[in-house]
Design brief:
The complex is a heterodimer of chains A (383) and B (265). Chain A has 383 residues and is α+β, with helices and mostly antiparallel strands. Chain A is built from 11 helices and 18 strands. In chain A, the strands form 4 sheets. Chain A has a 6-stranded mixed β-sheet with strand order 6-7-8-3-9-10, sandwiched between helices. In chain A, strands 13-17-14-15-16 form a 5-stranded antiparallel β-sheet. In chain A, strands 2-1-4-5 form a 4-stranded antiparallel β-sheet, with helices on one face. In chain A, helix 2 crosses helix 3. The longest helix of chain A is centred in the middle third of the chain and has 18 residues, at 196-213. The termini of chain A are far apart. Chain B has a single domain (60-260), classed as MetI-like (MetI-like fold, Orthogonal Bundle), CATH 1.10.3720. Chain B is built from 11 helices and no strands. Chain B has helices spanning 5-33, 50-57, 59-92, 98-106, 113-127, 133-158, 161-169, 174-202, 206-211, 218-225, 232-262. The longest helix of chain B has 34 residues, at 59-92. Classes of the chains: A alpha+beta (383), B mainly alpha (265). At the A-B interface, strand 6 and helix 2 of A face helix 7 and helix 8 of B. Bound molecules: adenosine-5'-diphosphate and magnesium ion. Adenosine-5'-diphosphate is lined by residues 43, 46, 48, 66, 68-74 of chain A.
């Protein structure tokens, strides 16, 4: 039995997806794959999903991002058919599947704990969906081999799941789902159990596989970086509701609520007296840390710039960047990130306590809808 | 933990004394089964296999051995079916009084055998069932169910719910999921539970005495014969057989259980 050697990252990228795993490109490119209409789910006293509407296009890499307990998994399980919505409708490619059991839905799931069958070997695991659907033996073997090759586990077919590493199990789970050519693939924090390095590799790999097979991916994660780098679009969840839906750039650059501003990136909120003093108007505003220029207190600001004076309270050296926490004279604080163009770690760390002037372009100030920010909500929940 | 040499010695001696206390009488029976002397005397007078021959020739012993094995197999099969069903019901469905049912299934093993025996005997008489193999099987099944149920429910609780969900997700209906995923993951638990049930049934005597009627299981035969002086060595041989037939299943069951526990899911 040939065991594939582990080579460099680029050498380990999946081959072209085999023909049998690719979905035919649909005639209407922007057909709706999944549609949720006012979907609610209540468990006893808990309202896990508090009424969401969502449309996911065919072939899209769509992420559900949100803190733990925000209802992402429950939403995914309703799409898979494991939970029945308390109210609302779920449509898959135009068909109402609200009461349809999981085995009659053209959807497959990659579980967070992989859920590989321990008494079956890798081939049997991957071929399970074909076996229960009575695909004949020869066809099954061919497709299993292809699927294993795509996740770079050719030659691992005879192993038991207990003889595989975490990353390999993850790939088997992926192959087991993809081999059925589902129209929609659901992934619940599929990389959660992997270490950082493997995680980053798998992120790239998943994205490549998704583009090759052209299947709609719905990807649940609590990691904002993962959601931003991988998705075509994403939905930000909080307390069973969707706060915002949009492209990564939309959500990052133009958060519409304080929660999104806080959860995606660093919040940098200006509100109340501070907003009045710095921005000159009432409301809640945010500025992204990387949009702020930090200079000597006596440097003049540009015409289209707003500014605030403050003192560096904290310095976090991040290698390529440094993050400064600046206490504003007007009250409150802002986080500023600056590239380490010429500065060294020594110089950077000496900056603590220095008086500085912060300046940013007017157009980088975003007005947010009212309400508490993610940070405050966190504090309220775990005092 | 560091212990002083004296403490360590004391601990070893105590352990040895306890093991000796438990196993010496059993060793004695084994030795006497090979003793040429008809009455148990120490030291053994000589080595012989005569008593084994006598035991093998006794039609009474053969009949009681056969009855014991039939009863144990019957009780084990009934226990496997009922224990598995009960475990599924309690694990899968939440119904009113679920905890109570779970408790009631386990209770027979704690009830005094004499009480169970009298109750069952009375019940059998009331409905007019002939005492014999059938009544023994039913009576034994009441407590054999416990070992199967306990093993099965422990395994069901340990098996991830997402395995069944994964199966359904991949297109298997409820029946296919049961057949290809749930049942196979239960197999070793049922084997272990069944072996324990067999051993439990094989050496039971109190309940059996009350529901066996004129029939003699192996333990009843021993009980009826061990006081007869001229039978003593043959009784020892039969006891040896009884030990083997209950220890081997228990040993196998514990091997199976520890192997199943050692395999990472
Ligand atoms: N089966 C269940 N029974 C009761 N409460 C549940 C169940 N599943 C989820 N919940 C609750 O619903 C809320 C949302 O959970 P979940 O969808 O798992 O969130 P997430 O995946 O975003 O972490 C949580 O408060 C959780 O405790
Ligand atoms: Mg979750």
């Amino acid at each position: 039995m040939a065991v594939e050697p582990v080579t460099s990252l680029s050498g380990r990228m999946p081959d072209q997806a085999p023909e049998s795993l690719r979905r035919p490109v649909s005639a209407q490119a922007a057909e709706t794959a999944v549609r949720l209409e006012a979907v609610r789910k209540v468990f006893g006293e808990t309202e896990a999903v508090a009424g969401i509407d969502l449309e996911i296009a065919d072939g899209e890499f769509f992420s559900m991002l949100g803190p733990s307990g925000s209802g992402k998994t429950t939403t995914l399980r309703m799409i898979a058919g494991f939970e029945r919505p308390t109210s609302g409708r779920i449509l898959l490619h135009g068909r109402d599947v609200t009461g349809v059991p999981p085995f009659d839905r053209d959807v497959n799931t990659v579980f967070q704990d992989y859920a590989l069958f321990p008494h079956m070997n890798v081939s049997e695991n991957v071929g399970y969906g074909l076996m229960v659907r009575r695909v004949d033996r020869a066809e099954r073997d061919r497709r299993v081999t292809e699927a294993l090759r795509m996740v770079r586990l050719a030659g691992f077919g005879r192993r038991k799941p207990s003889q595989l590493s975490g990353g390999q199990r993850q790939r088997v789970a992926l192959a087991r789902a993809l081999v059925n050519r589902p129209r929609v693939l659901l992934l619940d924090e599929p990389l959660g159990a992997l270490d950082l390095k493997l995680r980053e590799e798998m992120q790239i790999e998943l994205k490549v596989i998704q583009q090759q097979v052209g299947i709609t991916f719905i990807y649940v994660t609590h990691d904002q970086e993962e959601a931003l780098t991988m998705s075509d679009r994403l939905a930000v969840f909080s307390e069973g509701r969707i706060e915002q839906v949009g492209s990564p750039a939309d959500v990052y650059e133009r958060p519409t609520t304080p929660f999104v501003a806080g959860f995606v990136g660093t919040s940098n909120l200006l509100r109340g007296d501070v907003a009045r003093a710095v921005i000159g108007s009432e409301g809640t505003f945010t500025v992204r840390p990387e949009k702020i220029r930090m200079t000597d207190p006596d440097t003049a600001a540009g015409d289209d710039e707003l500014f605030a004076m403050g003192e560096i309270r904290d310095v976090i050296y991040l290698g390529s960047d440094t993050r400064y926490v600046v206490a504003l004279d007007a009250g409150g604080e802002l986080v500023v990130t600056q590239q380490n163009l010429e500065t060294s770690s020594m110089e950077v760390l000496e900056a603590r306590g220095r008086a500085v002037r912060l300046a940013w372009k007017r157009r980088h100030v975003l007005a947010l809808e009212g309400g508490p920010s993610a940070g405050e909500e966190e504090a309220r929940r775990n005092p | 933990m560091e212990r002083s040499p004296a403490a360590r010695l004391l601990l070893r001696l105590t352990t040895a004394a306890i093991l000796l206390f438990i196993y010496l009488p059993i060793v004695l029976i084994v030795v006497y089964a090979f003793n040429t002397n008809r009455v148990p005397t120490w030291p053994p007078a000589g080595f012989t296999l005569e008593w084994f021959g006598r035991a093998a020739q006794s039609s009474e012993i053969r009949a009681s051995l056969s009855l014991s094995i039939q009863a144990a197999i019957g009780a084990t099969l009934v226990a496997l079916v009922l224990g598995t069903l009960a475990a599924f019901a309690v694990h899968r469905f939440s119904f009113f009084g679920r905890e109570t049912v779970s408790f009631l299934v386990i209770l027979p093993i704690a009830l005094p055998g004499i009480v169970t025996g009298i109750a069952l005997a009375t019940a059998f008489k009331t409905i007019g069932v002939q005492f014999g193999l059938l009544t023994i099987v039913v009576a034994h099944a009441t407590f054999c169910v416990v070992t199967v149920y306990n093993n099965a429910i422990a395994r069901l609780r340990r098996t991830s719910r997402s395995l069944e969900e994964a199966s359904m997700d991949l297109g298997a209906d409820t029946w296919q999921t049961l057949r290809h995923v749930t049942f196979p993951s239960l197999r070793t638990a049922l084997l272990a539970g069944g072996l324990l049930a067999f051993a439990l049934s094989f050496d039971e005597i109190i309940v059996t005495l009350l529901v066996a009627g004129p029939q003699q299981t192996l333990p009843i035969w021993i009980f009826n014969n061990y006081l007869r002086p001229n039978q003593a060595p043959v009784v020892n041989v039969v006891a040896l057989l009884a030990i083997a037939l209950s220890v081997i299943p228990v040993y196998l069951a514990s091997r199976i259980s520890s192997e199943a526990a050692g395999v990472p899911r």
